[in-house]
Amino acid sequence: MFCSTILTPHALIHLHLLPSLQAPAPRKILRTGAVNSASGSAYAEFGNTKVIVSVFGPRESKKAMMYSDVGRLNCNVSYTTFATPVRGQGSDSKEFSSILHKALEGAIILDSFPKTTVDVFALVLESGGSDLPVVISCASLALADAGIMMYDLVASVSVLKIGLGLPFGLGYAFQSLEARQFWIPEVSSVVHGVSGEEESYQDGSLMITCMHLLVMRITQLTITGEWSTPKIHEAMELCLDACSKLGKIMRLCLKETASASQE
Amino acid sequence: MGCRGGEKGVLRGLGGENVWSVLREGWLVRVLYFSGIPSTISFNLDLICNGIVVKCKVSKTVRVKVAILKRQGGEMLQDQPQGRPTVEVTGHKAHGAVPVPGSIVIARVAKVMARMASADIMCVGSKSVREKFSGIIRMVIIPSWLISTSQATYPLILFLVSPLLAKCTSTSLGVVSLSDESFDSSEAKIIAIGRTIILTYCIMRIVREVFVGHQDIRATEIDKVDMHSSFRPGDIVRASILSLGDARAYYLSTAKNELGVVSAESTAGATMVPISWTEMQCPLTGQIEQRKVAKV
């Protein structure tokens, strides 16, 4: 099944140009407490994408702001100048700030810190594709590290559609902590981690941000490109499954930090 | 049922039961509430928020309902069988505290003005904050006779001024008896006076309550309070948060005995020693300065 879908010449060309199919699965790192001066922070590395998020707060709002009974969330996503192969502003970084805000505000209990502001600063150190899902997941880890009350951790996964819509690529894949490779048998080809090159070939993308613990709640869904309904279903199933596994990995990461600090 | 005092004076008992004990001065009592269980506390300690340790000043028997979730060693205790088990979660970080109305805070006085002092909140409860919050201690001045007059003299004053008031109020408010014509003029006058006495007494009481509620610095001798003789810039004060206030600052209050200046520096630069509830003395120069001292 793998071969039959790749036999199209279009896809064959893609196969040669898709390095991650041949390369070993890229490493994934999730750490909290990376930044000492912040209330909470997290560092995430998925393949080539490296993101560090620091959370400040709850701290006093600026004097110019109006009084509010609930807390405020302020998000900022920025790229370093060396993040992309071409030096300069990363793609859509202004949009990313508002997307991050929308993804997180559904999960944070704003009533717990009235009149104050929580600032989330995300810095993309290296952009290796699928930046935004990594930023969102890392930001929710950093918020948990800061002790901000939330309904649930927010995990984010994106899926790319490459070529003629046949193979799927998983926006960032993940491994269980025993480093077993994870295959999705019903999908004909799995791309472990999407690099920037693969992103440039994409036909469409679907990004889901969800909280999965008690009830599966999706806080954000972003679809770009051409999708038919059955493909959307398939992609969503894939993503939700991946989100729940990612959520478990994030929790393990937090527990490790907590048990390490207790010792 | 029942308990005994521990070495440090901490009441120990299983969660949820009624604890009867004699509390002595200097004991530290931890009082916690279960959510959903009505509190039947009847004692005169200054309380309380979950988990805040209070100091007990009374030496008589006091009834306290104590629900201890966690012993000093750190084990979790479960509720009594009919109750639900409760787990308390405490954050591992010392920072991240947000000022909550009713909590005791430590603040440093930044500015002292005629009617208010602005202070930077540095600690909330026992946790320090990473970045300071702004707070304001306000004062409203009202005439001394309104406060220091005892309740017994209210009617006397009202009676003396009531003829004037009777004319003004009964005509302006339209408070006229139902059947004015059936009474002769003297009786009507007495009735009108009586009505106005009650009316103005109520108004005076309301005014007193409203203004007393705003006395944020000292509870007694309010008219003699001067901001500069209570705080100076640089003093460390213990205050309680009255409310979230406005967009700029939290409203603080030092209107209790145990609130006020905890530590202050004299003009000579030495840490002053409190000598009374209103005065502190510099150990180097012997100079006495006025502060509103907290009863620690």
TrEMBL record, chain A:
GO cellular component: cytoplasmic exosome (RNase complex); nuclear exosome (RNase complex); nucleolus
The UniProt record lists the keyword NADP: no
Principal place of residence: cytoplasm
Keyword presence, Phosphoprotein: no
Matching InterPro entries: ExoRNase_PH_dom1, ExoRNase_PH_dom2_sf, PNPase/RNase_PH_dom_sf, Ribosomal_Su5_D2-typ_SF, RNase_PH
Domain Exoribonuclease phosphorolytic, chain residue ranges per copy: 30-148
Family that this chain belongs to: Belongs to the RNase PH family.
Name of this chain's protein: 3'-5'-exoribonuclease family protein
Organism, as annotated: Actinidia rufa
From TrEMBL, chain B:
The keyword Acetylation appears for this protein: no
One GO CC term, this protein: nucleolus
GO biological process annotation, one example: RNA processing
Gene3D superfamilies assigned to the protein according to its UniProt record, in alphabetical order: Nucleic acid-binding proteins
Keywords on record: Cytoplasm, Exosome
Compartment(s) of residence: Nucleus, Nucleolus
Domain of life assignment: Eukaryota
Protein name in UniProt: Nucleic acid-binding, OB-fold-like protein
Organism of this sequence: Actinidia rufa
